[in-house]
Write a structure and sequence with these properties.
Layout lengths: L1 H39 L4 E4 L3 H14 L11 E3 L4 H10 L7 H7 L5 E5 L6 H12 L3 E7 L3 H6 L5 E5 L4 H24 L6
Helix pairs in contact: 1-7, 2-7, 4-5
Subunit structure: Homotetramer.
Keywords: Carbohydrate metabolism, Cytoplasm, Isomerase, Metal-binding, Zinc
Enzyme class: isomerase
Length: 198
């Protein structure tokens, strides 16, 4: 029984990724182009999410500031999930809903990009961060699932919505991980061309 459950996770994950690939590829390509353009113009990427999505935020920022698969100069990305003094001060003095939006207001500028993770599309503090980003004339790339929720309804035509066509949080997060790797690879290819193995 245990082996069957384990196999079911792997099979469902693989099937979800395959089903998502065709649906999401055009949106991922848009996100790559948008991020490459912003980075080329001297702008930065701010990233936020909760729980596993906070880990994805930090993972993405680390791939840009450090490297993905090839040596290159560091690219400016900031995970808004890492400064515990800011997070706890804002949550305590204002509300948990504002932990990311105040950082967007502090660090975000027109032309920057907010990469926002929410598997449900309804995370209140991510919604608030998007509101703050749009007020600052930033562009938004949102990674969601479960139909996109409130976030899907608030994005503009200038933004990119990458909504995983699944309702299970674990599967959505797994597709988000492949997506951020695809974005990192796309940015590297846009910067340098070709393949890392060439």
């Amino acid at each position: 029984m245990t082996n069957q459950r384990i196999l079911a996770h792997f099979h469902e994950s693989a099937e979800t990724k395959i089903q998502s690939a065709t649906v999401l590829a055009p949106h991922i390509a848009q996100a790559i182009e948008m991020m490459f353009t912003a980075l080329s113009n001297g702008n930065k990427i701010l990233v936020c999410g909760n729980g596993g999505s906070a880990a994805d935020s930090q993972h993405f920022a680390a791939e840009l500031v450090g490297r993905f698969e090839r040596e290159r100069f560091p690219l400016p990305a900031i995970a808004l999930t890492t400064d515990t003094s800011i997070l706890t001060a804002v949550a305590n003095d204002y509300s948990y809903r504002e932990i990311f939006s105040k950082q967007v207001q502090a660090f975000g500028q027109a032309g920057d990009i907010l990469l926002a993770f929410s598997t449900s599309g309804n995370s209140g503090n991510v919604v608030a961060a998007i509101e703050a980003a749009l007020e600052r004339e930033m562009r938004v790339v949102a990674l969601t699932g479960k139909g996109g929720g409130a976030i899907g309804k608030m994005l503009t035509d200038a933004d990119v919505h990458i909504c995983v066509p699944h309702d299970r949080t674990a599967r959505i997060q797994e597709v988000h991980l492949v997506t951020i790797h695809a974005i990192c690879d796309g940015i590297d290819v846009a910067l340098f061309g070709g393949d890392v193995n060439e």
